[in-house]
Amino acid sequence: MNIKSLLIGSAAALAAVSGAQAADAIIAAEPEPVEYVRVCDAFGTGYFYIPGTETCLKVGGYVRVQLGFGEGTSERSDYDIFARGRLEVTAKNDTEYGTLTSVVRLRGHASENNAGYDDNWTELEEGYIDLAGFRVGKIYSWWDDDLFSEGDYLSNNTLFASARYVFTGEAFSAGLSVDELTWDNGTGAYDDANIGLTGMLSGAFGPVSATLLGSYDFDYEEFAIRGIGSAELGPGTLSVAVAYASGENTYFNAAEWTVAADYAFKVTDKLTIAPFGQYFWDYQLDSRIGDAWTVGLTAEYAVTEGLTALATVNYFDADDNNLNDSVTGFLRLQRDF
After folding, report:
1. How far is it, in rounded angstroms, from Cα 163 to Cα 173?
2. CA-to-CA distance for 147 and 145, rounded, in angstroms?
3. CA geometry: angle 313, 85, 76, nearest 5 deg
4. Taking the mean position of all CA atoms in its chain, how far away is CA 260?
5. How far apart are CA 141 and CA 158, in angstroms?
6. Is 75 helix (H, G, I), strand (E, B) or coil?
7. What would the pLDDT profile of 261-291 be if each residue is shown by its tens digit?
8. Are the CB atoms for 272 and 299 separated by under 8 Å?
9. Which residues are CB-contacts of 335 (< 8 A; sequence separation ≥ 6)?
10. CA-to-CA dists, residue 101 to 136, 167, 242, 279, angstroms
């Protein structure tokens, strides 16, 4: 009886152990938790958190197709078609010094009928770091901000390697920028890099806003000043700009004095039209060829969300007999994302 009980107990124990091993063999390991991309609404729409970090990322850009027309548009004909694209990546996160921002903008251009050769290129358009009012990198200067219309001439090259600081108050802002300047010497080659200094003062008072710029080119030892103001007037916005150049410089040298104005008004919710005019005293400072003026019309139409069509036509006339009157313009289709 004892032997039988012992055998039965041993068999039961063996079965229990075997059953436990069989059960353990089919238990699957729990999967690792997956971190899904989260929307970041701290810096506006379009941002999302980089997984595993507190940094918010935004991806955007545009695709543009443009047809330019007018005498001298290219060496082959009086028109030129090109395609251009921009890819922009912005990263932001909060720090003890404020919002840390970094921006990378890559731009590509393709044209098969420009100056008699294929004009295809890709470049770093902008790349900078921004923190506590300081911005360093390759950036557009304040001279790049101009009128709504597309026919005005209020600056030269506006993209520099710069270091700048901006103080922002409730109704005004002030900034100072140190710019590395390079200038085409007329032979297709560029002079050695030099230094420029730009000061900015801007304010907004209800429907009226104004910005004053002053820049000094240490290589040419000349300066340029420009003021732009705008005001909401009736169904649109009236903008006026005045610029002065003491002589040849990198920032603005189209004339000794110039004044420009446009009026951008909404015909419908989708269509905006802006007539403009500009007058130059002592057009082209290097040769003092005389006065000149230009007038034009720009129309922008929002086809649908993210897709815009823009057209402009401009007439130019100069006192100098060596410069022919000209009509130029372009048609543009742009998809922003």
Report:
1. 17
2. 7
3. 50
4. 23
5. 5
6. coil
7. 999 999 999 999 999 999 999 998 667 678 9
8. yes
9. 62, 63, 64, 306, 307
10. 11, 16, 33, 40
249 neighbors 225 (Cβ within 8 angstroms): no
How open is the CA angle 250-314-62, to the nearest 5 degrees?
70
Rounded distance between C-alpha atoms, residue 95 and residue 98, angstroms: 5
- The DSSP result for 320-331, as a single string, is STTS--EEEEEE
- Number of helices (H), then strands (E), belonging to the chain: the values are 1, 18
Share of the chain above pLDDT 90, in %: 73
* DSSP 8-state symbol, 5: H
- One-letter identity of residue 162: S
Q: Which own/partner pairs from 45-52 qualify as long-range (CB within 8 Å, at least 24 positions apart)? A: 47/90, 47/92, 50/91
Q: Which of 326, 148, 156 is nearest to 258 (CA)?
A: 156
For residue 50, the 8-state DSSP code is P
pTM of the model: 0.84
Using CA atoms, how far apart are residues 103 and 165, in angstroms rounded to an integer?
A: 16
What span, in angstroms and rounded, lies between the C-alpha atoms of 111 and 89? 25
Residues in the chain: 337
CA 113 to CA 82: how far, in whole Å? 8
**What is the residue whose two structure tokens read 């901000």?**
145
- Provide the token pair at 259: 């004044």
Residue in this structure with the two tokens 């958190």, named with its chain if needed:
49
Q: What is the pLDDT of residues 88-106, one digit of tens each?
A: 999 999 999 999 999 999 9
Joined together, the tokens standing for residue 129 give 């770091």
pLDDT at residue 78 in the model? 82
Rounded-to-integer distance, Cα 237 and Cα 148, Å: 9
For residue 117, name the pLDDT band (cuts at 50, 70, 90).
Answer: low
Residues 6+ apart with CB under 8 A from 55: 49, 91, 92, 93
pLDDT over 50 at 20, yes or no: no
